[in-house]
Amino acid sequence: MAGGAAVRAGNDGTDRTKILLRAVWVGAVLFLLCVMQTTVFGRWKLFGAVPDLMLAAVVLLGYCRGREEGAIAGIAAGVFVASLGSVGVTIAPVFYMVIGYVCGYFARAVYPKGFGAYLFFLGVSLPFGSIRTVIQASLTHANPRPAMLLLYAVLPELFGTFLCGAALFFPLRALIGRAKR
């Protein structure tokens, strides 16, 4: 009986170590993406707006790794964005958590986890990203003008996020998104 407990404890320890190493690795990749989003794309805007690389990464993690990892990565992504790139009140951690969880929930039925299905999940999440942009602009600015907000912030961010998400699919999947076995 004691030998069985020791074997289980040994497996538990290696599983916990693997989970911890994976969390550190995914966190580092998310942090680097956040730095790219807030600095590189903050200076050189794509279509005149900053693409949401964190949204693409959270969708990919939920899509490939499941709802739990998608939600946890969403919280981390939201905290990184709130820490490095937002001003004032932010809804980013809750938004990214919900997106990661929902993508992971619905991606359970998708197999194999291919590029086309990922683009579908990313495309479905983009309108919610646009709603987040409008809410964030309303919280940050006293009187945002809807037509200007749509033309100069929402649509450019939507197109830039879709293109960057498509371009980042293969490198991100190789780094952080291999499907669970």
What report would you give on this structure?
This protein is mainly α and 181 residues long. The protein is 80% helix and 0% strand. The protein is built from six helices and no strands. It has helices at 2-43, 53-65, 67-85, 92-106, 115-140, 146-175. Helix 2 (53-65) runs parallel beside helix 4 (92-106). It starts with a helix and ends in a 6-residue tail after the last helix. The mean pLDDT is 86.
Pick out its properties.
181 residues
Give the uncertain stretches in residue-range form.
Answer: none
Assign an overall shape. globular
> Strand share of the residues?
under 5%
Oligomeric state, counting identical vs distinct chains: single chain
Query: What would you report as the Rg, rounded to the nearest angstrom?
Result: 18 Å
Average pLDDT across residues?
Answer: 86
Number of strands: 0
Distance between the termini: 30 Å
Order of helices and strands: HHHHHH
Main sheet overview: none
Indicate the structural class: mainly alpha
Helix content: over 70%
Number of helices: 6
